[in-house]
Amino acid sequence: MNTELPSELLTELRKAKRVAVLTGAGISAESKIPTFRDAMTGLWASFSPEDLATPEAFARNPRMVWDWYAFRREMCAKALPNPGHLALAELETRFEEFTLTTQNVDGLHQRAGSRRVLELHGSITRVKCADTGRLLEGEIPACDNPPPRHPQTGGLLRPDVVWFGEALPERALLESARAALSCDVYFTIGTSALVYPAAALPIEALKAGATVVEINPTETPFSNTASYSLRGKAGEVLPALLAALQG
Question: Could you list the active site residues?
Fold first, then answer.
């Protein structure tokens, strides 16, 4: 990490009582989870996201969509939380209120130990009934001709993720907005700050008077707006930040 941590930021963090965080694909990439589009290789190279991540695609070819997400689910299960995930879990214990909103669906924040996680795009680790939205409890049932059916509702199972054309979960979005408006410090980590409504969260935090910190290896459209823009990987900057606070 080449970025020096500003002493003013450390002072503000030591005073802070409420901290909120938004994470994007960048922090998962450090655990070697490719983005959705980057994973379109090998058997999947000829497909577009619209072929695999819409309700229409599932209705048209449920097995193909199921197989794609089974491939992704296995990839995420093999990945491990990286030092950025672990540092965020540790930071959560230092503040009176800590809210972590993620655009990622891999469940790595929870596996790292984060407790209050709001998932804007759902989770690939869960499946639900495509007809009723009822989550499946327990293991995914074996099936000779996937996708399997929900044992209670009888409907086909689908991943509990937000597909193109679907609304974000209202509760997660409302709680994320509430945290952004009430926090002392807001972190945006590993995200390009382009996809709304998530991209509006750090802007709203800034308008409400929070110190907003961007952590990203490269410049983004939000870099010049943030109170502090720290260049580097989450797995390097966050542990350094944690160590400085403990020092």
Answer: 121
